[in-house]
Design goal:
Layout (H helix, E strand, L loop, with lengths): L3 E4 L2 E3 L2 E3 L4 E2 L3 E2 L5 E3 L2 E4 L3 E4 L7 H11 L7 E3 L5 H4 L2 H7 L4 E4 L1 H11 L5 E3 L5 E3 L4 E6 L9 E5 L4 E5 L20 H16 L3 H10 L7 E4 L9 H13 L6 E8 L5 H15 L4 E5 L5 H10 E7 L2 E2 L2 E2 L1 H12 L6 E8 L5 H9 L5 E9 L4 H20 L2
Parallel strand pairs: 8-9, 9-10, 10-11, 15-16, 17-18, 17-19, 19-22, 22-23
Antiparallel strand pairs: 1-2, 2-7, 3-6, 4-5, 7-8, 12-13, 13-14, 14-15, 20-21
Helix pairs in contact: 5-7, 5-9, 6-7, 8-12
Bound molecules: flavin mononucleotide (FMN) and fe (ii) ion (2 copies).
One fe (ii) ion binds next to helix 2.
Length: about 400
């Protein structure tokens, strides 16, 4: 895409990635894509804020050529060292060797360990300002949003917050970069949630601290390093991030995520009976077959809904492995404080329930009901399952 002007002399010069299958080598973005948003300020002094992954480098440099001569670049502002933003740094440094790289003290150390860069690096302090001429930049430390070295950069005259990973989203940009021109806001909000839970949720406390720190700062544009640039309603994405961050410890939404896995359909039959019970109570229900859905898409539902129902059989004395993997990732991502119920089929002496209880210990999920049956569920078993659905739904509705 060509450079896009956010405000006079402030340009988006990002890279739209529709090639990478797995973000961080882990999270699927084959269908959705992602953007690495970089920004260029073409003032008396010239600065680039945030960079991009080492991908489509020609396109990246052509965007800069549209606006200015790369040899005249004065500053590279590294808000965050993760290679989805810093990957292009070595090449950029070769093309503009006299630039100064600005970042936190931790960034300075990482520049050496990641790229062997020790020269032309200047550490900026929290709250420090830098005048480029007409534009003044202020650096705001926001550690652990997403890494320890991370900061944001605030442009004071146009009130643009270059927020890096915070307020970001999966989803390649579709022609326009702005929220007001976006015809599919629901897509970006859904992908912002998936990105939040996959990437940022573990750092929910630092997210809330950053939002609090910036509370008094007037912001007319939020320009994150992934996804839409928010200029019509920048408050919208802040509110969403705040809500999701608060879910880490506070009340979540009334709803149930049902996770199931089944080798031969016995546990699946029961899943349908449980779903019938839940639907009778009118509680929003999302069902995932853990074998067919990547955990990336399951985590947002687990994060936002307060109830979880797990249906999985015994496999070699343990819980069906694909289910164990999902629960393991939920623990990794600190999806805490849920109500949970479990059911599952077994063939002879079981073992899944014991394993399941061990797996939910680090999650601090409250097990409210569980039952197992042998082989194919009987009529009575299915009634029991439907009843579990009803009772569990009532519990979810009345809890917080
Ligand atoms: C590979 C494999 C391993 C199994 N291991 C056990 C086991 O260790 N203990 C047990 O009680 N049942 C075991 N079973 C039996 C299943 O739990 C039983 O067939 C159950 O009905 C499967 O439910 P599903 O149709 O929902 O997959 C195993 C079955 C398979 C195919
Ligand atoms: Fe990051
Ligand atoms: Fe990132």
């Amino acid at each position: 895409m060509p450079p896009i002007e956010l405000k006079p002399d402030v340009y988006w010069i990002g890279v739209n990635d529709r090639t990478t299958d797995l973000f961080e080598g882990l999270w699927p973005i084959t269908q959705e894509g992602v953007s690495y948003n970089a920004y260029l300020i073409n003032d008396e002094k010239k600065a680039i804020v945030d960079l991009a992954k080492a991908l489509k480098t020609d396109e990246f440099f052509e965007q800069i050529d549209h606006v200015m001569d790369i040899g005249q670049l004065d500053y590279i502002i590294v808000n965050h060292m993760e290679p989805d933003h810093s990957g292009i740094l070595s090449t950029l440094r070769r093309m503009a060797p006299h630039t100064t790289i600005l970042g936190t003290e931790k960034t300075r150390k990482m520049l050496e360990t990641f790229y062997g860069i020790t020269e032309g690096v200047q550490v900026v302090q929290d709250g420090e300002t830098l005048s480029l001429g007409q534009h003044t930049l202020k650096f705001v430390y926001t550690p652990f949003v997403h890494w320890p070295e991370t900061m944001m950069t605030y442009e004071t005259s146009a009130q643009i917050l270059f927020s890096c990973d915070a307020f970001g989203s999966y989803g390649a940009l579709r022609g326009s970069i702005f929220d007001d021109a976006c015809t599919v806001p629901a897509f970006y909000e859904q992908e912002a949630l998936r990105y939040y839970v996959n990437i940022v949720a573990v750092f929910s406390k630092p997210v809330l601290q950053a939002i609090e720190k910036l509370a008094g700062v007037p912001v007319s544009i939020i320009a994150p390093s992934h996804g839409l640039v928010w200029r019509k309603n920048p408050q919208r994405i802040v509110e969403l991030y705040q809500k999701w961050a608060e879910y880490a410890t506070g009340p979540t939404e009334v709803g149930i995520t049902m996770l199931y896995g089944s080798m031969y359909g016995n546990t699946e039959k029961m899943m349908n009976a449980v779903a019938q019970g839940i639907s009778q109570e009118g509680v929003p229900l999302t069902i995932f077959d853990v074998n067919h859905t990547h955990v990336s898409y399951i985590l947002p539902s687990l994060w936002t809904q307060r109830g979880v129902v797990v249906g999985a059989p015994t496999y070699e004395g343990s819980l069906f492995p694909p289910m164990a993997q999902v629960l393991d990732m939920a623990a990794q991502k600190r999806v805490r404080h849920k109500k949970v119920a479990r059911f599952g089929s077994y063939g002879w002496s079981g073992g899944a329930q014991r394993h399941f209880e061990r797996l939910i210990e680090p999650l601090k999920w409250e097990l409210t009901d569980s039952f197992e049956f042998t082989g194919s569920p009987s009529e009575n078993d299915l009634k029991r399952g439907e009843e579990l659905g009803v009772q569990f739904s009532r519990l979810v509705k009345s809890s917080d």
